[in-house]
Write a structure and sequence with these properties.
heterodimer; A: alpha+beta; 7-stranded antiparallel sheet; 4-stranded mixed sheet; 15 helices; 19 strands; B: alpha+beta; Nucleotidyltransferase, domain 5; Rossmann fold; Dna Ligase, domain 1; 9-stranded mixed sheet; 6-stranded mixed sheet; 17 helices; Hydantoinase/oxoprolinase family protein (chain B); ACX-like_C (chain B); 5-oxoprolinase (ATP-hydrolyzing) activity (chain B); Hydantoinase_A (chain B)
Chain lengths: ~600, ~700
């Protein structure tokens, strides 16, 4: 191992350089503003490069990637605005890399590029690769520039990454444990070849890794420019001041809440078609304690880990980001606190505990690749616990998502793999209806245009529309889920990693529950068989698969809903006149007007 | 040849009359009449004609920049709009890309769900389906269903109909046929199709753009016909030409078909003006590389000219009011930083400037119209940089004490700094915001801003020009004469411009040169026909540009590269190499082993209009010092330190070619103020532009 530095351990390299007690007072407020804005600008540039250079639609269209700058102690200073589930775990990835380096006696060197995906060392799950570029100043390690991205295929036992029956961490991907794919500027060709040989669609995935590297290196270079422009110590100080500001803002909001413990619990589908009871209807429970300006989240009541089923959630890479996302999005909702930056400061007042060996903190080598749905449900239950104490900042239960991998082999014996993220919906809010057919909570990706999918894969999107007569009724109604139907033009396979087909999104304060989602396979599985997962299922030419997104929960008594709002939904064919009367007590006439008198009578 | 430029802004309508024969240029300003902007414009035209002794009938061209389309979108002031779309896809414009605008918000709204351009009840589906790759008809158009839907929409009181079918960019036949049926059933409706608005893949963006086109179609066409009628009544018989977002001028008939092409009409004219002034000061053999910085009361608009070409936006990144719009347009970066931007200390104690603005009403504190929060303009006043007697020709009273008090109470006290530091801080922050916005269009795209000329205009641009230039390492900064009306001036420098596009996914390696040549041939013919119809007959006045949007196979973003000239396509190997080079320049990396895919074929036709001549300013007769009107104490930041400097004030009208104003100095004129910091000097150039040069 060559090392151009005199330090012998990574611990020496990551000692804090300019940590001060009160960074906000130590820096000129004008400089803090100026540098703070520039740091976000750098992250946005990284994101811009990554989307435009990347190959797979999961990165370039769905934006399932993250970019951030961290200090030498793996504290996030700034991030771009892609999906939270990619950015939240970045500090855990870097901490994992540091930990592995310490264990192995390795150190960082200028020109290194490190590839990492181990969920037991901070990764969110194996398909999300991090590219970590260390940044040096005067030979001292001072920062990290990091990109994360979801890869289309990572060398697991089946095509794609929506795999629901991996047995352990080794069956989920080619394992990348803090691997220097570029060492002091020299490419490790053996490592590249090994990765390439283990991936079904190497052109796309290797191209995407290159894009991640370019973006991370660009971030490192721009950070150096900022050091040159403002002085290294001042930039570091500005980073600390920004973190301190965000922390202070969150603490102020937490302090407003009455001390006490607020709880919520609910179930995930798990494997609804499994004969083994321990694999389905699994309990998740959140006990959230407010104590002064701190929040402690205890997850001790959650189900035990599921051995041999990949719905276990990596603690640092999935569970912690899920909880934090909800606390930030409610107490510091950007609709009201637009300018509070997302960084390490947000994490300081929040302490999450989960016992080892549980589904929310599994022991190695339990599989974790399909942790997405359970994690988003955990976020949903954190929201429910908060609804107990600050209802005005929350929403009713959300509709969870399904991630689908479509694949096949072409006439030229080449694999094609396409990944499609379906939408969920939001529960109703205290003063407004829920958002329809959107990604929820810790996911915020984009769908792929139908005109792009059909032009590049042997698939036809037969239908993409909102559901009707299925909304979670309430004074404010829940958001409405979408129906998406995919037909195979040539024989192929499909895998689905979903949640929310059995348990409906919860209603709040008298609002009705929403409606669960569904998975339907033409001629084989209909909506009466709750199903949210599917493993590499064979599909015939011309056969379709329909995914139905859940509808979010309602808020408040449906009979208190403004009759005019009910009529508007009738006009839009979202609910029938019959449902308007039965559920909302609103009589809509043949002329599609509200019969005020009959409605008052009905609602009495 | 007499050319009249009219730029209608929120507060003022600027007019600019050029007489190429007499070499005369006249500027006129009237108040904008918001209820019908054409009224104010006509008042201006009449006054301008009287003042210059011009017969209205002698005007050859009327060129107009307008915010009418922009306002209709932003103020949701369109008509009840209906949509016909493919059966089973009723909610494409509602679901969008299923992404939320904000990552960390539970209470947010999604613009296209909260305030839809077309409500679900007015989105009617009809059986039809076209499929890739060749646009084959899989399900024929159900004409009876179209007729029924159109009848329902008419009964529902819909005034405009957008026809949006999947894959119509491959085969427009269904949309065209549906259009005919709708027009027959509902002859009073404004009807538009997605294949005519922008035939490019990505259905949500295309359908939304088409819906927006329908939504604003009636108000924009009404406005155009009113404007035309008033011009005729006033005796102006020149044809009306309108500035489009792509920086070209189109006839009023074309604009009526595609009003969405006007969304950035106003700022586009300014960028043209900036490009023209920069070109006038660029040595003949050098390429024009320019950053335009147009700073008004609430926002700053930034545009880029690289190698003589105005940089166009990627259609995937353009939006207005949160809605995507898929229309060729100049790449304009707009940020909430202007003279009226409010400086404040937020609830967490951080120092912020903008994007909230005091606007025209109440305006900055110093305007004394009820504003209480300090703005960028108040910071300048507090530092002594704007003085009543030199501001807006001395016509407006300035409450300097009020400005200083507001800076002290709202900023200096809570931040525990003195007022001068707080005021300088406001400028540091707002200048940095502008510099970052410029970096996002230069450094982020592999362009070194140091090699560009910065042209600063708008009422507030010249106050920030030098500081922004210093921060970016820009060597040449220009403040054109009459910086407040440069958009109207820019109008007179433009050409006719029409864009044509065709989507076809083709791998360059597998492509047949003749087939692609033929596809371009069709587009080129459309462009030529259009230009001929506008009276551009001479070949030398007509330029045809051929480009392609290309990507490596599998990528999702395209880069636009030139692929030929005069209707003739370059060799496929040349195109391939050019794409590799473009990719390396933009992203610092190219993939020589990967296949290159052509996604869109594009043709742009330009028709040259007579251009504005440059008018030289007389040489200086006296030393510049003789023109100093006063000398006052002004605060500056010099090498990070705050310094009070005795600073001369000049009236720009007194300055002549060859004058060099040493910093610190302030040069006032009717519609703007130029700040020359201590480390700069201002040189008056041949055509009246003042060049700000950083002295090391």
């Amino acid at each position: 191992m060559t090392d151009s530095h005199t330090t012998t351990t990574v611990r020496d390299q990551t000692s804090a350089l300019t940590d001060v007690d009160d960074p906000e007072s130590a820096i000129d407020p004008v400089k803090q503003r100026v540098i703070g804005g520039s740091l976000v600008n750098v992250c946005d540039e990284m994101g811009h490069k990554l989307t435009r250079m990347s190959y797979s639609s999961i990165i370039r269209e769905s934006e399932d990637f993250g970019c951030a700058l961290l200090d030498e102690r793996a504290r996030q200073i700034a991030e771009t605005d892609s999906t939270p589930l990619q950015m939240g775990p970045i500090p855990a990835y870097v901490s994992g890399v540091i930990e592995l380096f310490e264990e192995r006696g390795e150190t960082f060197a200028e020109g290194d590029v490190i590839l990492h995906n181990d969920p037991y060392y901070g990764a969110s799950h194996a398909p999300d690769f991090a590219v970590v570029v260390p940044v040096f100043h005067d030979d001292d390690l001072t920062a990290f520039s990091v990109t994360t991205a979801h890869h289309l295929d990572v060398g697991a036992d089946k095509p794609g990454t929506c795999i629901i029956d991996t047995v352990d961490a080794y069956s989920e991907s080619v394992r990348l444990d803090a691997l220097k794919i570029i060492e002091s500027g020299t490419r490790n060709d053996t490592a590249w070849q090994l990765i390439e040989d283990n991936i079904r669609v190497p052109d796309m995935v290797m191209g995407d890794i290159e894009a991640q590297i370019s973006a991370a290196q660009a971030g490192a270079n721009r950070l150096q420019d900022l050091f040159d422009e403002f002085g290294h110590d001042t930039v570091k100080l500005a980073g600390q001041a920004t973190m301190s500001y965000s922390e202070r803002m969150l603490r102020e909001e937490i302090s407003e809440l009455p001390d006490g413990t607020y709880s919520a619990e609910g179930y995930i589908d798990g494997y609804l078609d499994s004969d083994d009871e321990s694999e389905r209807d699994l309990l998740l429970a959140v006990d959230l304690e407010v104590d002064g300006s701190d929040i402690r989240v205890d997850l001790s009541r959650c189900a035990a880990q599921v051995d041999g089923r990949p719905i276990n959630m990596p603690f640092e890479g999935t569970v912690v980001p899920a909880v934090l996302l909800v606390i930030r999005s409610t107490l510091l909702d950007t609709e009201e606190f637009e300018l509070v930056p997302q960084n390490h400061g947000i994490t300081r007042p929040v302490h999450v505990h989960a016992p080892e060996g549980s589904i929310v903190n599994p022991r190695f080598p339990a599989p974790t690749i399909a942790r997405f749905g359970p994690g988003n449900r955990l976020a949903d239950l954190t929201l429910k616990a908060l609804a107990d104490v600050v209802p005005e900042k929350t929403a009713a239960g959300i509709g969870n998502l399904k991630i689908c991998t479509y694949s096949g082999v072409t006439d030229d014996d080449e694999y094609w793999v396409y990944m499609d993220i379906t939408s969920g919906s939001y529960g109703a809010r205290p003063t407004s209806d829920g958002l329809d057919a959107t990604d929820t909570l810790y996911a915020n990706t984009r769908n792929n245009p139908i005109e792009d999918i059909e032009s590049h894969y042997p698939l036809r999107v037969n239908r993409y529309e909102l559901r009707e007569d299925a909304e979670g009724a309430g004074r404010q109604r829940g958001g409405i889920g979408a129906i998406r139907e995919m037909e195979f033009q040539t024989p192929g396979r499909v895998s689905i990693e979903g949640e929310g087909s059995k348990y409906a999104p919860w209603g709040f304060d008298g609002g009705e529950d929403g409606t669960p989602g569904a998975v339907v396979v033409e001629d084989e599985i209909d909506e009466s068989t709750p199903r949210s997962k599917m493993s590499n299922k064979e599909m015939d030419e011309g056969q379709y698969l329909r995914t139905v997104g859940p509808c979010g929960g309602g808020w408040g008594d449906p009979e208190e809903r403004d009759p005019e709002a009910v009529r508007q939904d009738v006009l839009d064919d979202l609910i029938s006149r019959e449902r308007a009367e039965r559920v909302y007590g609103v009589i809509v006439t043949d002329d599609l007007e509200v019969d005020e008198e009959a409605t008052a009578e009905r609602r009495r | 040849m007499k050319i009249l430029g009219i730029d209608i802004g929120g507060t003022f309508t600027d007019l600019y009359l050029v007489d190429n024969v007499e070499n005369e240029q006249t500027i006129h300003k009237v108040s904008t009449t918001p209820e019908d902007p054409s009224t104010g414009a006509l008042t201006g035209i009449t006054e301008l004609c009287e003042a210059t002794g011009t017969a209205p009938g002698a005007i050859d061209y009327v060129l107009h920049g307008t915010t009418i389309a922009t306002n209709a979108v932003l103020e949701s002031d369109g008509v009840e709009t209906g949509m016909l779309t493919t059966e089973n896809y009723r909610d494409i414009t509602h679901i969008g890309r299923h992404q939320r605008p904000q990552n960390y918000s539970i209470q947010q709204e999604i613009p296209w769900q909260d305030d839809p351009l077309v409500e679900r009840r007015h989105r009617k589906t009809v059986p039809e389906r076209i499929v890739p790759p060749d646009g084959e008809v899989e399900v024929p158009l159900d004409e009876a269903a179209v007729e029924e839907a159109a009848t329902e929409l008419r009964a529902d009181g819909v005034d405009a109909v957008a026809i949006c079918f999947l894959f119509s960019y491959l085969e427009a036949e269904h949309e065209q046929r549906a259009r005919e049926i709708v027009e027959a059933v509902h002859p009073d409706a404004y009807v538009t199709t997605s294949s005519s608005v922008h035939p490019q893949f990505r259905e949500f963006e295309r359908f939304t753009t088409t819906a927006m086109n329908a939504f604003i179609g009636p108000p924009v066409t009404d406005y155009m016909s009113r404007f035309k009628r008033k011009l005729a009544d006033a005796g102006v018989d020149a044809e009306l030409h309108i500035m489009q977002s792509n920086g070209g001028i189109a006839t009023e008939e074309l604009v009526a078909e595609k009003p969405v092409s006007l969304l950035f009409s106003g700022p586009a004219a300014g960028i043209l003006g900036g490009k023209w002034r920069s070109g006038a000061n660029t040595p003949d053999r050098e390429a024009n590389n320019t950053i335009t910085l147009d700073v008004g009361g609430t926002s700053a608009d930034i545009g880029i000219v690289a190698d003589d070409e105005i940089v166009e936006a990627n259609v995937r990144e353009t939006e207005i009011g949160g809605y995507p719009v898929m229309i060729p347009m100049i790449d304009i970066e707009t940020i909430g930083a202007g003279g009226g931007s409010i400086a404040y200390v937020d609830q967490g104690g951080a120092f912020r400037v903008g994007p909230r603005s005091a606007g025209a009403m109440p305006g900055p504190v110093c305007y004394d119209r009820g504003g209480t929060e300090p703005t960028v303009t108040d910071a300048h006043v507090t530092l002594g940089r704007i003085r009543e007697e030199f501001f807006l020709g001395g016509e407006m009273r300035l409450d300097a004490g009020g400005a200083a008090d507001a800076v002290e109470a709202s900023l200096a006290d809570p931040l525990e700094m003195d007022s001068v530091e707080a005021a300088l801080g406001v400028l540091d922050i707002v200048n940095n915001n502008m510099a970052n916005a410029i970096r996002s269009k230069t450094v982020q795209k592999g362009r070194d801003p140091g090699k560009f000329t910065l042209v600063a205009f708008g009422g507030a641009g010249p106050m920030h020009a030098a500081d922004v230039a210093r921060e970016l390492g820009v060597e040449r900064t220009l403040v054109p004469s009459n910086p407040g009306v440069l958009s109207a001036v820019g109008l007179s420098t433009t050409d006719l411009q029409y864009d044509y596009i065709s989507t076809e996914f083709t791998l360059v390696a597998d492509a047949d040169h003749d087939e692609i040549q033929a596809a371009y041939g069709e587009l080129v013919e459309q462009a030529r026909t259009r230009l001929r119809a506008d009276g551009i007959d001479a070949t030398e006045a007509m330029t045809i540009e051929m480009t392609a949007d290309c990507r490596y196979e599998g990528q999702g973003y395209e880069l636009n590269i030139p692929v030929g000239a005069d209707g003739s396509l370059d060799s496929l190997s040349t195109i391939r190499e050019r794409f590799d080079r473009a990719h390396a320049a933009e992203f610092g990396h190219s993939f020589a082993d990967n296949a290159v895919e052509i996604v869109n074929e594009r043709v742009t036709g330009y028709g040259e209009l007579p251009s504005s001549e440059l008018v030289a300013v007389p040489e200086k007769a006296h030393d510049v010092e003789r023109h100093a009107l006063a000398e006052e104490t002004v605060q500056f930041r010099v090498d990070g330190e705050t310094e009070s400097r005795q600073t001369p004030f000049y009236d720009r009208r007194d300055l002549r070619t060859g004058h060099v104003v040493d910093g610190p100095a302030i040069v006032g004129e009717k519609d703007s103020t130029i700040i020359v910091p201590p480390d700069f000097e201002g040189r008056v150039r041949e055509y009246g532009d003042i060049e700000l040069v950083h002295m090391e």
